[in-house]
Amino acid sequence: MSKSKKVMVISGKRKTAIARATVRLGKGRIRINKVPLEIFEPKLARDKILEPLFLIEEKVWNQLDINVSVAGGGVMGQAEAARMAIAKGLLKWTKSTRLRTTFRDYDRTMIAGDPRRSEPKKFGGPGARARDQKSYR
What we know:
Elements: E1 7-14, E2 17-25, E3 30-32, E4 35-36, H1 43-54, H2 58-61, E5 64-71, H3 75-94, H4 97-106
Parallel strand pairs: 3-5
Antiparallel strand pairs: 1-2, 2-5, 3-4
Helix pairs in contact: 1-3
């Protein structure tokens, strides 16, 4: 390994959730907010976070320790932000174009963010689009 590959910090975003991943040489441990990924709950979010690891050879990520800290948003927004941070970290560590095309073909939001955000509420109704009903006519 070269000296430039000691530690990498990568971020991923989804809606209002922001994940920061630290990638370094290690024993293949992955932690989300200091919780090992094996016992991370809920299971659906854990499976979402594991997707980039299923698409890459095990020998690559078994040599890396990835610590992810996630804040903001909901459970699945945090899971998708963590997934993006892990995928970007693996891409940056390996510098593989084949891996980039694999991630892009599987799900583009792993490497390129989803720009959709929740629309702000406006006056005259209970939500962003819904309006108060009229009681006459």
